[in-house]
Design goal:
CATH architecture of chain B: 3-Layer(aba) Sandwich
Largest sheet of chain A: 4 strands, parallel
Helix content of chain A: 40-55%
Number of helices of chain A: 23
Distance between the termini of chain B: 8 Å
Mean pLDDT of chain B: 94
CATH topology of chain B: Rossmann fold
Radius of gyration of chain A: 25 Å
Distance between the termini of chain A: 52 Å
Oligomer: heterodimer
Shape of chain A: globular
Radius of gyration of chain B: 13 Å
Number of strands of chain A: 6
Low-confidence stretches of chain A: none
Low-confidence stretches of chain B: none
Strand content of chain A: under 5%
Strand order of the largest sheet of chain A: 1-2-3-4
Chain lengths: ~575, ~140
């Protein structure tokens, strides 16, 4: 791939000749002042080394693919069942609403997928540590997710997961961050009640508090005590829950909040570096710790070739960080664990003519498949229309992925974009830009400083503002939003079946408050108070791991809000 | 709003919703359009929003909600505004709000609702055309 110097010279001369000849003529004929297209040649890759920078899939630097055989081929490749048949009606993806009773019914009605587990969205009070009857929870209970106040709610929800889908046979996914450890404690307590050892429990809490400060907003405490809670997760799971993932480090939300694609990756890695350092400082072995770390995707956008190149660069950058910065010894630990995909992002999806979102996401999935990732069809096309993805949207999404795998056969070749003069040039450029940003953050003292000073948030919102200016000026086109909006355009739509029962959501708050107040009357309140005192004291001790105390407390049906109130007393509050 | 003076706007995040890209961008764009904008930051109760609106003596109250709790907050905010004789203040909402809820919100007292259909220019124009002017 590295052409010799003479060859480079010949190519550059030939390019000049083309620019002065065929290109100039074409532009004159069409009345153009500038060439509307870019062009890349081998000359742009004269410093690119194939073995060092591209390499082979599943090997350092992982640019060409995270696996020698991608998981998607092994599990969902041609000839396998990609979410086949019944699974559309029974699959539910990321979901949650109402009360635990509502979700138990939701899972039971759909019939449960073998081997999978719930992928749970929680309501805002649960995410931010307020009970359903707290003043601040008013209007929010059971809306963006299910309400969980006490262990009783977990017991109820997980009644849908028993027998051959009991806790030792499934993996739970929780989009929970600041209140992760309390939720984890509930899961441990639930397992104990069912006679299941915590060593057997599998799951992934998102638990990425750093990005909350700059992009998602469900943080509770200031950064330092927040990181202490994260440390508790790391050390507790290292010792007691080796099958549990401890974190899902996310770039997605920062990208959605307006970060550029390079910022999203670089800031994710800066945050990841802070988490790894936290683990190392707590005495964990990086090679052991890395096995319990996952990443969510980095977010995406519609310029899919650039997104594909950016993903390839991200793999290489992280491999260098793991190998050269953290000195991880196991090569398998040099590449991040993630599902992959999500190349088109959620933010480009429009409320206007929402079926266009199916096209947008499918285009992203095509390029994900071409770089060895699963052809993830997230989000479903009706994401901008409000809470809950319809069954129809899931059907079309599944079919799009199947078409990509079975008909286009995009999974049949590794890194089809590899070697493209354009893609490799972009990949190399993005790598440089990512390391530049990471170095800048290092100089500030790391992610925690960069976040605490407000810098990271300012960068993200600055990028959002720049993008918005482009939209307002008409330089950035969003089809059906700021262009192609004339009355003659047709608003195409298909009938949609909501996965949720809307009426349940309307009275969920009332039902939840009633059941919560009942629990408060029925439990042993003296023991609850004792537990809370113990938690408060231990919170003041930096070295103490609070999770065992949370387990004790939740068993007495202490509420999420009661525990968090005590923690807020000690840790303070971040707004 | 007193004729000749700048339009004053309070941009508020209500409830626990932590998504502030829209609110931050709106604040910036309204400032660029010559308005004075106060942004509340995240997690404000109805009481906090009403107090801020009164204290800052704004002409426009803009509430941003993406968490589905818009009806609950609209009802309470509109109720408080009525109680405290804030009828001259223009109450608008934005965020992720289903079309079918917009008539309901307007019945409650929300003057206009801006969702993904609206451009920032729409919002600026609406404010300029509908803010109550005193001479």
């Amino acid at each position: 791939m590295q052409p010799e110097e003479n060859e480079i010279k010949r190519i550059e001369e030939a390019k000049q000749k083309w620019e002065d000849g065929a290109l100039k003529q074409a532009m004159q004929r069409l009345g153009l002042q500038e060439n509307p297209l870019e062009i890349y040649t081998p000359a742009d890759l004269k410093d690119h080394d194939y073995l060092e920078q591209t390499g082979f899939p599943g090997e350092y630097p992982f640019t060409a693919g995270r696996f020698a055989v991608p998981l998607v081929s092994a599990m969902w490749g041609r000839g396998k069942n990609l979410g086949a048949g019944k699974m559309i009606k029974t699959s539910f993806g990321y979901s949650g609403y109402g009360t635990a009773e509502d979700m138990r019914e939701f899972y039971l009605e759909k019939g449960n997928r073998r081997g999978a587990g719930p992928n749970i969205a929680f309501d805002l009070p649960t995410q931010i540590g307020y009970d359903s009857d707290d003043e601040l929870a008013e209007g929010e209970v059971g809306r963006v997710g299910v309400a969980i106040d006490t262990l009783k709610d977990f017991e109820t929800l997980y009644e849908a997961w028993t027998n051959d889908q009991d806790l030792d046979k499934i993996a739970s996914n929780w989009t929970i961050n600041g209140t992760t450890n309390i939720l984890l404690a509930m899961y441990i307590a639930l397992a104990e009640k069912r006679g299941i050892a915590q060593e057997k429990l599998r799951g992934t809490p998102q638990n990425d508090i750093l990005k909350e400060f700059v992009a998602r907003g469900t943080h509770l405490f200031p950064a330092k005590p927040s990181m202490r809670m994260t440390r508790d997760t790391f050390t507790y799971c290292a010792e007691h829950m080796p099958a549990m993932n401890t974190v899902s480090i996310s770039g997605f939300h920062m990208r959605e909040a307006g970060a550029t694609r390079v910022q999203a990756v670089a800031f994710t890695f800066a945050n990841a570096i802070a988490y790894f350092q936290l683990a190392i400082d707590a005495g964990l072995d990086v090679d052991v710790f890395a096995k319990q770390v996952t990443f969510l995707n980095f977010g995406g956008g519609m310029e899919v070739l650039k997104e594909a190149a950016c993903r390839r660069a991200a793999r290489r950058v992280w491999a260098k960080i793991m190998r050269d910065r953290f000195h991880a010894k196991k090569p398998a630990n040099w590449i991040y664990r993630e599902l992959g995909g999500g190349l088109a992002g959620y933010w480009p999806c429009t409320k206007q003519r929402p079926l266009n979102n199916l096209v947008r996401v499918a285009i992203g999935a095509v390029f994900a498949a071409m770089i060895g990732d699963p052809p993830g069809m997230e989000p479903p096309f009706d994401e901008p229309l409000g809470l809950g993805h319809s069954i129809e949207a899931r059907q079309l999404g599944a079919d799009a992925a199947r078409i990509i795998v079975e008909e286009c056969k995009l999974g049949d070749v590794h890194d089809a974009l590899g070697g493209s003069y354009y893609i490799e040039s972009l990949t190399d450029m993005y790598e440089k830009e990512m390391f530049e940003l990471i170095r800048k953050i290092d100089e500030m003292g790391g992610a925690i400083e960069a976040i605490g000073s407000g810098w990271m948030k300012m960068e993200i919102i600055g990028s959002a503002a720049t993008f918005q200016q482009g939209v307002e000026k008409g330089e950035i086109i969003r089809v059906g939003v700021n262009k192609y909006t004339e009355p003659d355009e047709i608003d195409v739509m298909v009938p949609r079946t909501s996965p949720y029962k809307a009426e349940r959501r309307e009275d969920a708050e009332q039902r939840q408050i009633e059941s919560l107040q009942k629990i408060r009357k029925q439990r042993d309140n003296k023991r609850v108070q004792d537990c809370l005192v113990k938690i408060e004291n231990a919170a003041r001790d930096e070295q103490a791991n609070l999770i065992p105390l949370f387990v004790e407390a939740v068993k007495e049906y202490t509420t999420m809000g009661e525990i968090c109130r005590v923690l807020r007393n000690v840790f303070g509050e971040a707004k | 709003m007193i004729e000749g003076k700048k339009i004053r706007v309070l941009v508020a995040k209500a409830g626990l919703d932590g998504h502030d890209k829209g609110a931050l961008l709106l604040s910036s764009i309204l400032r660029n359009a010559g308005m004075e904008v106060i942004y509340t930051g995240l997690r404000n109760t109805v009481g906090q929003i009403i107090n801020a609106a009164l204290q800052e003596d704004v002409d426009v109250l803009g509430v941003s909600i993406l968490s589905g709790s818009h009806k609950s907050f609209a009802r309470k905010i509109a109720g408080q505004m009525k109680e405290k004789n804030m009828g001259d203040m223009l109450f608008i909402m934005g965020g992720v709000i289903p079309d079918e809820d917009i008539p309901v919100l307007k019945k409650m007292g929300v003057a206009q609702v801006f969702t993904q259909d609206s451009s920032f220019q729409d919002i600026i124009a609406y404010i300029r055309n509908n803010v109550i002017r005193h001479s």
